[in-house]
Design brief:
Largest sheet: 4 strands, mixed
Strand order of the largest sheet: 1-4-3-2
Number of helices: 2
Radius of gyration: 16 Å
Order of helices and strands: EHEEEEHEEE
């Protein structure tokens, strides 16, 4: 069994995919727009799909994790509340690189630095509002 995050960017998914590809080295495994669905088969409640150029489904491989994403209904109001994605770096140098990349255009919530449980730990909301915890060198 696996649990995989599915993020809804509400109109900015393609931009987010490009950002994570560059910032995290994510591999794009799938990217389908609403225009790729057969007519009347976009799977949208109410029958009215979002604009054809918006992302219906994307799959990104980040390290060993599959992260899925979509524009959802593309209303322009993405919200990522009550959840953070945690990314474990191989070492402190990689943690710094990931943290700085995710911080570009975002908001640092806790600067990256040593903690009692890790040699590096920091929290940031990226430019899309997705909350990340970056960690390296955990104890135990």
């Amino acid at each position: 069994m696996q649990v995989q995050p599915y993020l809804f960017f509400d109109g900015r998914c393609e931009e987010a995919v490009a950002f994570y590809r560059d910032a995290l080295g994510a591999k794009v495994l799938a990217l389908m727009h609403y225009s790729d669905a057969p007519p009347g088969d976009a799977g949208c409640p109410g029958g009215q799909p979002p604009p054809a150029d918006k992302v219906m489904h994307a799959a990104l491989q980040i390290g060993q994790t599959l992260v899925m994403a979509s524009d959802g209904f593309a209303t322009g109001r993405p919200e990522f509340k009550g959840v953070s994605l945690s990314i474990t770096a191989d070492d402190d140098a990689q943690a710094r690189k990931l943290f700085d990349a995710l911080s570009a255009g975002g908001q640092v919530q806790q600067p990256l630095g040593p903690s009692f449980f890790a040699s590096s730990f920091g929290m940031v909301a990226d430019r899309f509002g997705v909350s990340w915890m970056v960690v390296a060198g955990t104890q135990g």
